[in-house]
Amino acid sequence: MWTEHDNSLTRTFQFADFQAAFAFMTEVAAEAERLDHHPWWANEYNRVEFRLRTHDAGNTVTKRDHKLAAAIDAVAGRHGVS
Prior knowledge:
Layout: E1 3-5, E2 8-14, H1 18-35, E3 40-44, E4 47-52, H2 63-78
Antiparallel strand pairs: 1-2, 2-4, 3-4
């Protein structure tokens, strides 16, 4: 689940291995481009961590962040992670 913390939506996903995590990130990158809203993220081996917030709105959580979070969740579902 996404949690709101320190003016950001945050969530961490865990995959079977680095290759699976990277495939997920590649698909998320395409969604972020489509939505014209780009996340902060970090990856270490099989874990991908996100922080979503809207810079144009003073680094607060907006509808754009919730829309991107839903898109990321859909990609995660396609990759077998919920």
